[in-house]
Amino acid sequence: MRKYEVMYIIRTDIEQEQVQSTVEKLQGIITNGGGEITKQDVMGKRRLAYEINKFRDGHYVLVQFTATPEVVKELDRVMKISDEVIRFLVTNDVA
């Protein structure tokens, strides 16, 4: 299992319950695939550096986890098709 880090931004025009369910859904993909979340930080609503799909703000979430590459592929696939996530980046954490 390898160490990874994912940062994603959730739209701000949805309800807080929907933001929480999106975070839990993405957590479930990692844990159900046999991965382990080592740190999760829901940073809250922040201003974006530039406008993305007409959004100026977003809910930032940072997750550090260990998982297999197959889990990361599934997480990537789900984030791409998710309407709630407007931007994300998964990196291999080598530190």
UniProtKB/TrEMBL annotation:
Keywords: Ribonucleoprotein, Ribosomal protein, RNA-binding, rRNA-binding
Pfam families: Ribosomal_S6
PROSITE patterns in alphabetical order: RIBOSOMAL_S6 (PS01048)
Coiled-coil stretches: none
Gene3D superfamilies membership: 3.30.70.60
Cellular component terms (Gene Ontology): ribosome
Database matches in NCBIfam families: S6 (TIGR00166)
Family stated for the protein in its record: Belongs to the bacterial ribosomal protein bS6 family.
Function: Binds together with bS18 to 16S ribosomal RNA.
PANTHER family referenced in this protein's UniProt entry, alphabetically: MITOCHONDRIAL 28S RIBOSOMAL PROTEIN S6 (PTHR21011), SMALL RIBOSOMAL SUBUNIT PROTEIN BS6M (PTHR21011:SF1)
Name listed for the protein in its UniProt record: Small ribosomal subunit protein bS6
Taxonomic source organism: Paenibacillus chartarius
